[in-house]
Amino acid sequence: MSTLQFWLDRLRNKQTLASTWADHRRNEALEALAGAGTHSSWIELSHHHNGFVREIAVRELCAQPSPEALVALVALIDRSNDWVPQIRDLAAVGLEHYLSPVHVHALLYAVEPLIALTARQRADHRKTLKAARAVLQSPVIRDEVQANSLTRHGKAARYLFELLLESDSNPGALLRSALAHREVTVRLLAVSACQKLPATQARQLLLEALSQSGAKLRVWVLRALLPLLDEPRPVLREALLDASASIRSLARWAAPSSGIDAHAVLFDRLKQDIPSKKRDWLGVLGLAKELDVELDPQWQKEALRSRYPTVRRTAISTVSYDQLPELFKALDDPLDSVFSAAIAQLNKLPWALVKLGLDTQLDRNWHDLSVMRRNALFQLRPLWQQAAYLLDRLDAEPTAQAFWLRQLRMWCDRQYQMVDPVTPKVERMAIAERLVKLAALGLIGGDSVSRVV
């Protein structure tokens, strides 16, 4: 007699006429099990809220090897933490069938549920987890497990890497692939593992990893590599001109202990040809800014005209006062990120220095600018200078009187507390008087003007 039939008969024989909670649960189980019979339905029923149903489903999954081994194993792992002790015990027995190298595909599929099982406390799962780990460490399936680990993310990637490393007596090849893993936390674990290797082997692996992308990893690599180098100066010189600010920062910290002058490294580079690659540009510009070194005007112009937006954006932060025309040219850059960097730099300069260039920019491009760019440029002006500009445009363009009056009204309505330490008091009073006259003529609302005067 099949297990299912045995349980169905047992449930039917227990039925009584009395309508009790137990009778309801038995009837519910009979109804749920009536159409069961396929592996898919047993896997689904293993999650049923009725304990009778879950128990029968687990028994069926244990009794018959499932053609859907991947999903069946996950179901048994879930039920090994069931709140019913009998179901937990049944599931634990059923799991033993899958704890074999033959079922490597199912075990790899179930890595994340196995990891989740370590945090579940309804039973002691250490025996099951230890057995699963031992199987995944089997030499006969090692290549398959390692290949699978390279495709994983997050906890699963770290779990597989750690168990592979634990069982590897010569981990050089494993660490080389882990240092290039798609999951950054695995790469960081590999860097730590490299430090436990003989110095020669660790040095070779870390030097290879230092050329990879990803500043976070390379900082870790450089920090681990420097103590292993007999002659660290070539590596530090290169790191001082790295495109990453974090790499340069570490190199500047380590340079004095190796007798390296960061300024000398920068000046030597400035004697060479102007960079053509983005990474080289970013290294030179970044170190120059960090050391507060002013670049040659020709280098500055070439950086501001680079085809790489990140280079242009970085170059803007190194522009000096006597190169303001170049900074105003950057305001015409098609990329908003470069434009915003130019605005930030202009905002640091005294108003007297930027007034003429800003007036020219607004006069020429006011109607063609996007709202974002127009507002950014306009807000570079002190508050009373904003009003003065709108009044001057109103006087200069009588044919567009309605437009500029509307701009003035909107400007007045936006003001709440006028804080402008730049505009002299006499000039403020003259601007206020012009606004009052416009209100007296009925061209702008008196309520709007009263907000600012």
Compute the separation of the termini in Å: 98 Å
User: What is the ordering of alpha helices and beta strands?
Assistant: HHHHHHHHHHHHHHHHHHHHHHHHHHHHH
Q: Which regions have little confidence, pLDDT < 50, spanning 5+ residues?
A: none
Beta fraction: under 5%
Number of E-state strands: 0
User: Biggest sheet: strands, sense, closure?
Assistant: none
What is the count of helical runs? 29
Given helix and strand content, the structural type is mainly alpha
State the share of residues found in helices, binned by percent: 55-70%
The radius of gyration computed from the alpha-carbon positions, rounded to a whole number of angstroms, is 36 Å
Shape: flat
Estimate the mean pLDDT confidence: 88
How would you portray this structure in words?
With 453 residues, the protein is mainly alpha-helical. The chain is built from 29 helices and no strands. Among the domains are: 1-135, no CATH class; 137-230. The model has no long low-confidence stretch (mean pLDDT 88). 30% of the residues are buried. It has helices spanning 3-13, 21-33, 39-45, 51-63, 69-79, 85-95, 104-109, 111-117, 126-136, 142-149, 154-166, 172-178, 184-194, 199-209, 215-225, 233-240, 245-254, 262-270, 278-290, 297-304, 309-316, 324-330, 336-346, 351-365, 371-378, 383-396, 401-414, 425-440, 446-450. The protein starts with a helix and ends with a helix. The protein is flat.
